Amino acid sequence: MNKKNVLAVSVGVACIAASGTVFGAALDRSGQSIAAFLKPGNYAEYGGNFLNPTVEGKDKSGNKTGDVGNTYNFIGGAIKIQPFQKVSFGLIYDEPFGASAEYHGNSDFVSNPTDVVLSGLPVVTGPSIVSNGQLAAYGLNAGLTGDTEVSVRTRSATALVGFQPIDGLNIYGGGVYQEIKGNVQLRGSTYSVYNGYNLSIPSTREWGWLAGVAYEVPDIALKVSLTYRSEIDYDLDAKESLPLVSALGANSAQLGGLIQQLVLAGRIPAATGQAIGATLGSLSGGLTGGVTKLTTPQSVNLDFQTGIMANTVAFGNVRWVQWSKFAVQPAAFGQLSEAVGPLIGKPDGFNLVDYSKDQWSANLGVGRKLNEQFSGSVSVGWDSGAGNPVTTLGPTEGYWNVGLGLRYNPTPKVEISGGVKYFWLGDAEAQTGAHSYAGDFSGNNAVAVGVKLGLYF
């Protein structure tokens, strides 16, 4: 393979990257690529991605949930300049983490006036229920409506400086300025006393960093890069509401009498009655709230490419993200979890969202120059997920995918790329923050499409 052909391939293929990662374990979305920074000379790009998932399942009562996966789109851009032979600068914008899901229809993830508040107690969120002239369930009249929903977005700007001490070697690092915002609402009997919970995370920005090294041998189209990104810590002034806590407090006297009647009637053990009474007593003064801490995870990306024959390269990516240490426990949510935790074997409380394993993902492909203006690629991908069971706010576990890409060069300095990926999403068992069973989701899929414009200048 001569040098001219190698260079044409190395900058003209791997175009499936135009559609990015788009869908990954936990909240992973963009894949946090720095490929634009490693382009030769001066370069700029701008692109967008669109994800359409289908995520269906059944709740613990056997009701169908319908499709809970919302469409999701995000943009990305980068600019890289080489003002000196051995020094380069870059700025990359992406949206690395996110979530969008909503439950509809008649399921345990949608509010109903007959939703039970605490397991074992005949207490419901709506009006009291009377049967044959007898009180069947005491009603809190909390007026809960709506469905379970989550929306989380992040935006990240990465500033990079690269140093090339010798030909082919690039040592780089820089700072990351990242924004996060989101909303969560929990509805339905699945969430017990958290039915009606609302969380609003205002736009909050913090700093992180990255560092890496890259090596290339242009004569054989070899490129290898290894990039580390740090954790980013946030102190969030999150807004929370827990309407059932207020309703329980307002009805504490009546509920105390109801518990005594149930104990005397032998419907619940005395010890259980005492435990529930103690929990209700601890909630009578309400919740104080406070600062919510959140940390987006550290990650490592290994990217590589090499020529395998004339006008043809193999390329790939391996990514690790430390989701096993990620947890979200908003302040008031956590205080309530400590109050009700002893009733369900969680004396130290529990999180709104957490994951049990780290994410590993890999993508492998082959790209080929078709003629002087067009090149194409095909790829396969795999994602381990972040542990199973998974949160009800994202009930899938890893994936397999296949992708196709096409790049068009109308001039040597302009690239127009497009890609499409089809995902087979892994089956998952959904659980609440308290790790109680909530449902099963299987046979799901997603389609992602991406486009990108690149310019050398």
How is the secondary structure organized here?
Layout: H1 3-12, E1 43-54, E2 57-59, E3 72-84, E4 87-94, E5 98-102, E6 123-124, E7 129-131, E8 134-139, E9 149-163, E10 169-185, E11 198-217, E12 222-229, E13 232-236, E14 239-241, H2 243-250, H3 252-264, H4 270-283, E15 292-296, E16 299-309, E17 312-321, E18 327-328, H5 331-340, E19 353-354, E20 359-369, E21 374-383, E22 390-391, E23 399-411, E24 414-425, E25 428-431, E26 437-441, E27 444-456
Parallel strand pairs: 6-8, 22-25
Antiparallel strand pairs: 1-3, 1-27, 2-26, 3-4, 4-9, 5-9, 7-8, 9-10, 10-11, 11-12, 11-14, 12-16, 13-15, 16-17, 17-20, 18-19, 20-21, 21-23, 23-24, 24-27, 25-26
Helix pairs in contact: 3-4
